[in-house]
Design a protein that fits this description.
92 residues; alpha+beta; three-stranded antiparallel sheet; 36% helix
């Protein structure tokens, strides 16, 4: 039996990785264990926040492993767009 490299492709993010993704985009990601939801906040305007929901069905996400990495990437982008849209409507 030969020893080979582990070719297992990573499927899920860690909480720290998700926080880093949000931070790189100018947002804060926080997991609220009491409500079992993820909250996304605009760093410059923390009063502008939302629960992280899936674009496909608008259901709140309660666990990291509910979604693979690609879905998390899409969800973060989708929810940031929601926050930006909300910020524009508030400022008008």
């Amino acid at each position: 039996m030969s020893k080979g490299k582990n070719t297992h492709k990573k499927t899920y993010y860690t909480l720290d990785e998700l926080k880093g993704l949000a931070e790189a985009r100018g947002y804060l990601l926080h997991f609220n264990p009491y409500f079992k939801v993820f909250e996304l906040k605009d760093k410059k305007h923390p009063e502008n926040w939302c629960w992280v929901i899936r674009p496909s069905n608008e259901v709140k996400v309660g666990q990291i492993r509910e979604c693979p990495m690609q879905e998390w990437d899409d969800m973060i982008d989708f929810n940031i767009a929601r926050l930006k849209k909300n910020a524009v409507s508030i400022n008008q």
